[in-house]
Amino acid sequence: MSKILVVDDEHSILTLLRFNLEKAGYEVIQAMDGNQALHMALHEQPDCIILDVMLPKMDGIEVCKELRKAECMVPIIMLTAKDEEFDKVLGLELGADDYMTKPFSPREVVAHVRALLRRSNQYSQPQEVSKEEEVLKLGVLTVYVDRYEALRNDELLRLTPKEFELLAYFIRNRGRVLTRDHLLEVIWNYDFTGDSRIVDVHVSHLREKIEDDPKAPSYIQTVRGIGYKMIGE
């Protein structure tokens, strides 16, 4: 049973999400402020976090930032009210994987959680590879698709789910020029239309983890005005 940490300072939201997530078969733990959320995320080992932006003691953006700084790569869904000023790109830049606006339907939240959990990886140590498993290789990079594991020079990479998906898609499509809009559609597949900064931010983070010199990349090449291309053998 997957464990979901729900963080919100409104009892009604916590009750609504807890009921629907437990109905969908998940274990639910809760926090009502940023400090408690950070502690629980680091010590309770949730499989996914639903994190409100506006929280007492420490806001959701800062919680997200601290978790990624601590190399906690659990998938994070950010929540914000429709009338709150929030830069979704900033949230994603700091390490969030998904973004939802209140009011939302419980069914929508459960769908987002399921999608993230399907793609997430617990980053356990590499195991023996079965013959049926899809393995992608490029230079010093090896991607075990079914286990959501990526290695560089046989060392496990600490990737968020979106960074992993992006890397796998780039390798599968090496040599092809991929536009930012195309990457938005296939990797994020919901409404971030026209906000190509999201792609640029994730590519920048991915380069920092797979390139010897992110400022002179040998794998992910920028195609000016269009998008990106994966190169290498």
What does this structure look like?
This protein has about 230 residues and is α/β, with parallel strands linked by helices. It folds into two domains: about 5-120, Response regulator (Rossmann fold, 3-Layer(aba) Sandwich), CATH 3.40.50.2300; about 135-230, Winged helix-like DNA-binding domain superfamily/Winged helix DNA-binding domain (Arc Repressor Mutant, subunit A). Helix content is about 40%, strand content about 20%. It is built from eight helices and twelve strands. The strands form three sheets. It has a five-stranded parallel sheet, sandwiched between helices. Strands 6-7-8-9 form a four-stranded antiparallel sheet, with helices on one face. The chain has a three-stranded antiparallel sheet with strand order 10-12-11. Helix 6 (about 160-170) packs across helix 8 (about 195-210). The longest helix has 14 residues, at about 105-120. It is elongated and about 55 Å long. Mean pLDDT is about 85; it is low at about 120-130.
